[in-house]
Amino acid sequence: xxxxxxxxxxxxxxxxxxxxxxxxxxxxxxxxxxxxxxxxxxxxxxxxxxxxxxxxxxxxxxxxxxxxx
Length: 69
What we know:
The protein is built from three helices and no strands. The protein is globular. It is 51% helix and 0% strand. The chain has 69 residues and is mainly alpha-helical. The model has no long low-confidence stretch (mean pLDDT 82).
């Protein structure tokens, strides 16, 4: 498609985002967090998504949650 930037490497963006999240959460200890058995999210995943929610353009938490999935 003509509007796509052929030189753009989205996997590099993922690697950089992953490195940033790893750096931000490196010293976080989630061992004290307890979850209900039916919860499929890990504490680290929830913290990561919450960081993205905070930067989101969506106006409500529901919209941010749906956008993050």
